[in-house]
Amino acid sequence: MSVNQTTKARGVDIGVFRCQVCGQLNDQHDEYCVRCSSAISPRNYRSLQNSWALLITAAILLVPANIYPITTLTKSGIVTHETIFSGILRLVHADLVPIAIIVFTASILVPWLKVLGLAFYLSAISFNIPISRQKLMAGFHIIEWIGRWSMLDLFVISLSVALVSMGQLLDAQPAPAATAFALVIFFTQLAAKTLDTRLLWDQLDKNDDTP
Amino acid sequence: MIISSTKPRKHCNLIVCRGCDLVVSKRALPSGVRAVCPQCHTPLYDRPYCAMNGVLALCITSILLYIPSMLFPVLEIHFLGSIRSSTVFQGAMAVWHQGYWVVGLGVLLGAVIAPAVLLGSIMAQMIIIQTGWYRTKFGRDTLNGLLRYHSFINQMSMLEIYVISFLVTSFQLSDFADVYFGLGTLCFTLLFVVTLFLQREYNLEHMWGYVSESDD
């Protein structure tokens, strides 16, 4: 349910600062929140740069995460290296299409969408690109919510590695892409969490959907 | 705090959106409805209270379920007469010992440490509030510290993803071996369900209310 807004005023316009830690409203003269004693700042301008740095790191790590093998499988003495993508293809060939879809969403679709989506979002703030902010924010909420699901692949790897360890007969081991993939998740989550989304809404009202 | 005796009540019918800094006037909501920001659709607030006894009951249940779900194996495979089983912790340690400690740490944090810290934190908050310790300075500072990290820990805890992951693993391994679920699987799934309800029932804004109440 959407609450009717009374004004189009922002907190800074009427001199009320929201504490980003506990949500308490403070007067603009307060330096520290009256409730939780954390420092109050009207906007965190530095967060944009932090977010860009984290995102670029994640984007660079996305390359090794996808081209290097993520697991090494030994089956009857034959060693095969599997990348994220070939693992999904193997699932499709094994007639496990629903599982393949889950893995595809968690380990390819979500990380790529997250990196591209965040890049788009951050450039909209940095370069003042005229795109509907409502749509950007909806995308941001989805990114924030869905981002954790990439951890699925790592959990699966950890369980497989622990269970399948029978030497030359059948053996699963993690491979270099696993670390890169873990770091991609870490940095993209951090990039989304660091960003002060109010910066987007401070831009001129010209990009609005509604007049 | 010297200045705070009158301030918390000053803006009591106003709310400022976390996502876009829009000022919105607060109004009563029907139960089960969440107010979202009219401009950016970030959740603003939901019901103004939470059932403390319900949260306490769910929290104790979760803690009781946490112990067996970590001790018993979550998956077991039978392959050519040999039986292998793994608990959540062993899974994390298996990748750690292969040299992939980043992955191991991620699994450990998401499935073992964060849920434990989350449950411990909610339990401690409940004890502080129910016993009235939040009126003392020490209790208030502890509550403040716990609440500050609550949403971070809540995001780190990934029980639901782990539940899906042992389904995916069991299908993947069923190609070469027979896969069995154990008592740990049942406990872990129940832990996930109870924690889900706990997170629904828990209300962070209500908990912060105790910190400002102790000011007066």
Shape of chain A: elongated
Measure the end-to-end span of chain B. 10 Å
Biggest sheet overview of chain A: 4 strands, antiparallel
Number of separate structural domains of chain A: 2
Transmembrane segments (chain A): 52-71, 112-131, 151-169, 175-192
InterPro entries (chain A): PqiA-like (IPR007498), PqiA-PqiB_transport (IPR051800)
Protein name (chain A): Paraquat-inducible protein A
Main location (chain A): membrane
Gist of the model:
The complex is a heterodimer of chains A (211) and B (216). Chain A has helices spanning 46-67, 84-93, 97-126, 133-146, 151-163, 177-194, 198-201, and strands spanning 16-18, 25-27, 71-75, 78-82, 165-166, 170-174.
Task: Tell me about this structure.
- Chain A: One of its GO terms (cellular component) is plasma membrane.
- Chain A: Its main location: membrane.
- Chain A: It comes from Shewanella mangrovi.
- The complex is a heterodimer of chains A (211) and B (216).
- Chain A is of the alpha+beta class and 211 residues long.
- Chain A is 53% helix and 11% strand.
- Chain A has helices at 46-67, 84-93, 97-126, 133-146, 151-163, 177-194, 198-201, and strands spanning 16-18, 25-27, 71-75, 78-82, 165-166, 170-174.
- In chain A, the strands form two sheets. A four-stranded antiparallel sheet of chain A has the order 4-3-6-5. A two-stranded antiparallel sheet of chain A has the order 1-2.
- In chain A, strand 1 (16-18) and strand 2 form a beta hairpin.
- In chain A, helix 1 (46-67) runs antiparallel to helix 6 (177-194), helix 2 runs antiparallel to helix 3 (97-126) and helix 3 packs across helix 6 (177-194).
- The mean pLDDT of chain A is 85.
- Chain B has helices spanning 52-71, 88-97, 101-130, 137-148, 150-156, 159-173, 183-201, 204-213; strands spanning 14-16, 23-25, 35-36, 43-45, 75-79, 82-86, 178-181.
- The N and C termini of chain B lie close together (10 Å).
- Residues 1-9 of chain B have low confidence and may be disordered.
- Chains A and B meet through strand 1, strand 2, helix 3, helix 4 and helix 5 of A and strand 1, strand 2, strand 3, strand 5 and strand 6 of B.
